[in-house]
Automatic annotation (TrEMBL), chain A:
It is a multi-pass membrane protein. Keywords: Membrane, Transmembrane, Transmembrane helix, Transport. It is found in: Cell membrane. The chain crosses the membrane at residues 12-33, 76-98, 105-127, 139-161, 182-203, 245-267. Its main location: membrane. This is Glucose ABC transporter membrane protein. InterPro entries: MetI-like (IPR000515), MetI-like_sf (IPR035906). Residues 70-262 form the ABC transmembrane type-1 domain. It comes from the Bacteria. PROSITE patterns: ABC_TM1, PROKAR_LIPOPROTEIN. Belongs to the binding-protein-dependent transport system permease family.
Automatic annotation (TrEMBL), chain B:
Residues 4-236 form the ABC transporter domain. The keyword ATP-binding applies. Keywords: ATP-binding, Nucleotide-binding, Sugar transport, Transport. It comes from Pseudomonas cuatrocienegasensis. PROSITE patterns: ABC_TRANSPORTER_1 (PS00211), ABC_TRANSPORTER_2 (PS50893). Pfam families: ABC_tran, TOBE_2. One of its GO terms (molecular function) is ATP binding. This is Multiple sugar transport system ATP-binding protein. The keyword Membrane does not apply.
Length: 277, 389
């Protein structure tokens, strides 16, 4: 193609892309700006105006009210993400490499789990948690997230592992390696891209979860999403938009950070089937 | 160093499926090289996996040094396998790939280093030890895969189509190298291929398989000279054996087969082949005459049946020229030296050695043994040796 100055179609493409960017970025910008404004500034100024004075007061107040819940979320999310990823990897390994009688059916049922709406599992899950004595505990919420996430993590790993030649496992068996050695020494080191996909996916799902958090936790075990909702919805006193915005930013930052750190693996893992070499 | 014996081995993958292996009976001596050859999908890999213990057999027994190993797990069988896809561990470098099996067997680190060095030297891959499989060419990966098998010094090597992913030139080189390696190490080996040249050149014994059934098991010479049926005869040999339909006739207490080249020269366009003494039921029977391309010779010789035919196509291949004529309305290939090769349309005289001709039943495809013919051993010794290309 000749290297021409912007053709009409190019202009159209860039314009569309810029518009799409704006749709996503302008609200973020407004949030960020508002979080650094003083309440007076917010009341008098316009939404998009630059803060008259940058102040961290909103952030400090926000952290005071949701900081504890932030750590709740950390305590829920990290174990739930790690456990569901590890179990998903093991499940996927078995389903792809050690097929047993009925394993296809098992996989089919598991897939079904991906399509279960959250609402459907609420009652059975709360009953089960009650029976286990885990109601309103962090461990209970971790358990629910692990169980619900397993369908997805298993699917990720199973689909990744079926693209790896079975001969690799056969060779390792002949070399004398057992079930867990093959998993740990041969397959896991090959799984970095899909582990990243799984971690990001699960982290985003669990950190952002509101419904399970509101149903299965209460008081000081609640995750930050619930705390944010409570903060924003309080009807007493004047609305402190700077605090709301800062709290929302605090709630959203970890997922953003995870995506920035591991995002390149996410794309690579979703597109690459088999890794060669 | 071990003998291997398969007794009545059966394999069925699922209860609803047909048998993939049916009553496989094979045995090879210590240090022998067995070739398993057959078209793709006939069950060669399945049989290898069964011997290695990667798949359970559903009947029969597998014996190594006269001990039944069919219940053992793969790691206890002391068998190493080279896979068609090489199956190198992608995240380990070449050294770790070779050492993995030794580590799993708890060998001392110093001994592992020595063993890796020995194997690397043997296969000339010393300079590759630090590389990952992804940084190697196909031929180098192939060597590493062999190195991994060699390192454990197992009782038996299994090779499942190890050369089929290599280009033609490398394949020929590696074939020779594998043969040299086997002559040096003398380890009992089972080698799967669908390449009939590999089958003829590498093996002490050849088993030809089709649809999970061993069609014939013997030395390469037996397979080539006395194929048990039409399938074996057509599968082994390149260009393949000619199959000419015939009706058997009786004269003077003998069986004769009539060939007709339909060339408009009276008399010489027909030829009667004496095919042995008459047996009951042979008369008027439809059979198939099998003649290898190099067994059809140019020019008439007293006492040997000959026929005049017209050249339809010639294919110069370099070392020989293939000449195609029609006999009994069937295209027949004759292999000739390029100097003697005729032109298209030329008419020439071809002669046959009736002793070397084979007869097959037209229905069952089984080879017919005829009375009064030279014995198999005699015939084998007079046949022109196979020329692989
Ligand atoms: N794991 C399996 N489950 C079911 N059928 C199989 C399995 N592996 C191989 N087969 C079937 O067994 C037959 C022989 O396959 P294979 O041993 O791979 O043939 P080859 O190596 O001679 O090409 C094929 O028909 C194949 O479909
Ligand atoms: Mg195969």
């Amino acid at each position: 193609m000749p290297k021409r100055a912007l053709s009409l179609s190019r202009v159209a493409i860039y314009a569309t892309l810029l518009a799409a960017c704006a749709v996503y970025l302008i609200p973020l910008l407004i949030m960020l700006l508002t979080s650094f404004k003083t309440p007076d500034d917010i009341r008098t100024g316009n939404l998009l105006s630059w803060p008259e004075l940058f102040t961290a007061i909103g952030w400090i107040k926000a952290w005071d009210s949701v900081g504890g819940y932030f750590w709740n979320s950390v305590k829920i999310t990290i174990p739930a993400v790690l456990i569901s990823t590890l179990l998903g990897a093991l499940n996927g390994y078995v389903l792809a490499m050690w097929r047993f009688r009925g394993s296809q059916l098992f996989f089919g049922l598991l897939l079904f789990g991906c399509f279960l709406p959250f609402q459907v599992v609420l009652l059975p899950a709360s009953f089960t948690l009650g029976q286990l004595g885990l109601a309103n505990t962090t461990s209970g919420l971790v358990l629910v997230h692990v169980v619900y996430g397993l369908a997805f993590t298993t699917l990720f790993f199973r689909n990744y592992y079926v693209s790896i030649p079975e001969a690799l496992v056969s060779a390792a068996r002949l070399d004398g390696a057992g079930f867990f050695t093959i998993f740990g020494r041969i397959l896991l080191p090959m799984s970095v891209p899909i582990i990243m996909v799984c971690l990001i996916w699960q982290f985003t799902q669990i950190w952002n979860d509101f419904l399970f958090g509101v149903v299965f936790a209460s008081g000081d075990t609640q995750p930050i999403t619930v705390a944010l909702n409570n903060l924003v919805n309080t009807s007493t006193g004047a609305k402190e938009y700077n605090v709301d915005m800062a709290a929302a930013m605090i709630a959203g930052l970890p997922t953003l950070l995870v995506y920035i750190l591991a995002g390149k693996y996410f794309l690579r893992g979703l597109t690459a089937g088999a890794v060669k070499g | 160093m071990a003998t291997l014996e398969l007794r009545n081995v059966n394999k069925r993958y699922g209860s609803g499926l047909a048998d993939t292996l049916k009553d496989i009976e094979l045995s090879i001596d210590d240090g022998e090289f067995l070739i398993l050859v057959g078209p793709s999908g006939c069950g060669k890999s399945t049989l290898m996996n069964c011997i290695a213990g990667l798949e359970d057999i559903t009947g029969g027994a597998i014996l190594v040094d006269d001990a039944d190993i069919s219940g053992m797990s793969p790691k206890d069988r002391d068998i190493a396998m080279v896979f068609q896809s090489y199956a190198l561990y992608p995240t380990m470098n070449v050294r770790d790939n070779i050492a993995f099996g030794l580590k799993m067997r708890k060998m001392a680190p110093a001994a592992i280093d020595d063993e890796v060095a020995r194997v690397a030297k043997l296969l000339q891959i010393e300079h590759l030890l630090g590389r990952k499989p992804g940084q190697l060419s196909g031929g180098q990966q192939q060597r590493v895969a062999m190195g991994r098998a060699l390192a454990r010094r197992p009782k038996i090597y299994l090779f499942d189509e190890p050369l089929s992913n290599l280009d033609a030139k490398l394949r020929v080189e590696m074939r020779t190298e594998i043969k040299l390696m086997h002559q040096r190490l003398k380890t009992t080996t089972v080698y799967v291929t669908h390449d009939q040249i590999e089958a003829m050149t590498l093996g002490d014994k050849v088993a030809v398989m089709k649809d999970g059934v061993i069609q014939q098991f013997g030395t390469p010479q037996q397979i080539y000279n006395e194929p048990a049926n039409l399938f074996v005869a057509s599968f082994i040999g390149s260009p393949p054996m000619n199959f000419i339909p015939l009706r058997l006739q009786r004269r003077d207490g003998q069986v004769w087969g009539l060939l007709d080249s339909a060339v408009g020269v009276a008399g010489s366009a027909h030829c009667e082949l004496p095919l042995g003494a008459l047996e009951a039921g042979m008369e008027n029977r439809e059979v198939i005459l099998g003649v290898r391309p190099e067994q059809i010779l140019l020019g008439a010789v007293e006492g040997q049946p000959s026929i005049r035919a017209e050249v339809e196509v010639t294919e110069p291949t370099g070392p020989d020229t293939l000449v195609f004529v029609s006999l009994n309305q069937t295209k027949v290939c004759c292999r000739m030296t390029p100097d003697a090769a005729p032109q298209i349309g030329e008419s020439l005289v071809l002669r046959f050695d009736p002793d070397k001709a084979l007869l097959f039943d037209a229905q069952s495809g089984e080879r017919l043994g005829l009375l009064g013919k030279t014995s198999a051993a005699e015939r084998a010794s007079t046949v022109t040796p196979f020329r692989g290309r």
